[in-house]
Design the sequence.
């Protein structure tokens, strides 16, 4: 069996105790808010971060690891290295990791390393890492793992419902019309990742509860296009475990995914999902 290691940037969230990902190594982004820098690791107090975000007129900003940070992590003595990053459309993390991988290949041309553009984030990254570990642990050749995971990413679905879109408005990530609609009518939107990793609106509702019901309906409808038993349902919540559990139970009642995982939001997921946000990947 090949000697391998899996890396992800720190937008990859924290699964509950039902899913052990101790084999995964995370490379931290940083978060800046009102002149203070926070390292996105497991010591970050995301509840305190939410309070500071709510009190600020500014949007938090993220900074990806440098290519040198990635190179230092990749230089770890294993044969095969797999890396998963935030969507290239959302962060510079992918390009930075690619540069770090190039530096590694320059220092040792015999290393196998591949950086996956998740075209997703949060629980989507968790889903991809689980797929890599599944395939690599079976002893597949490096190129086989890469090919099958890229195909998996092509079919991966990521959708989300956010209680509060203020961070998106503050940072200019919503277009003008959507910003007006959500601020004046208080509509809740079901949003999702497009094939290229950008974000689009999938549905709208007057309340969060109705938006989550539409989210469940969209997942059930989409699951008819494949065998759910071959997939893992991964859900990230931002300070709303009970909400995530209900969404998970409602989906699993109709869609028999192989298994389900509920994750706590990382710092990066927190600054975009905000308090009460739910993200689903499958």
Sequence:
């Amino acid at each position: 069996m090949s000697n391998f290691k899996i890396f992800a940037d720190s937008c990859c969230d924290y699964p509950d105790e039902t899913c052990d990902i101790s084999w995964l190594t995370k490379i931290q982004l940083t978060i800046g808010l009102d002149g203070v820098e926070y390292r996105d690791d497991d010591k970050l107090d995301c509840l305190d971060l939410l309070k500071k975000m709510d009190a600020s007129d500014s949007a938090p900003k993220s900074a990806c690891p440098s290519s040198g940070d990635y190179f230092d992590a990749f230089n770890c003595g294993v044969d095969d290295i797999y890396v998963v990053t935030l969507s290239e459309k959302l962060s510079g993390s992918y390009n930075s990791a690619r540069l770090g991988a190039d530096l590694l290949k320059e220092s040792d041309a015999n290393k196998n390393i591949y950086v996956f553009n998740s075209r997703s984030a949060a629980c989507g990254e968790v889903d991809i890492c689980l797929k890599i570990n599944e395939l690599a642990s079976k002893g597949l050749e490096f190129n086989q793992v890469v090919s099958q995971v890229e195909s998996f990413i092509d079919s991966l679905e990521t959708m989300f419902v956010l209680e509060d879109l203020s961070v998106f408005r503050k940072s200019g990530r919503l277009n003008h019309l959507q910003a007006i609609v959500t601020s004046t009518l208080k509509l809740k939107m079901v949003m999702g990742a497009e094939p290229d990793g950008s974000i689009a609106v999938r549905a709208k509702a007057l309340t969060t509860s109705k938006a989550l019901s539409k989210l469940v309906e969209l997942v059930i409808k989409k699951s008819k296009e494949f065998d759910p038993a071959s997939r893992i349902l991964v859900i990230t919540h931002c300070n709303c475990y009970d909400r995530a559990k209900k969404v998970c139970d409602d989906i699993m009642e109709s869609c028999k995914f192989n298994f389900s995982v509920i994750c706590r939001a990382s710092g990066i997921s927190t600054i975009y999902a905000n308090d009460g946000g739910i993200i689903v990947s499958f």
The first helix runs from residue 46 to 55. The mean pLDDT is 92.
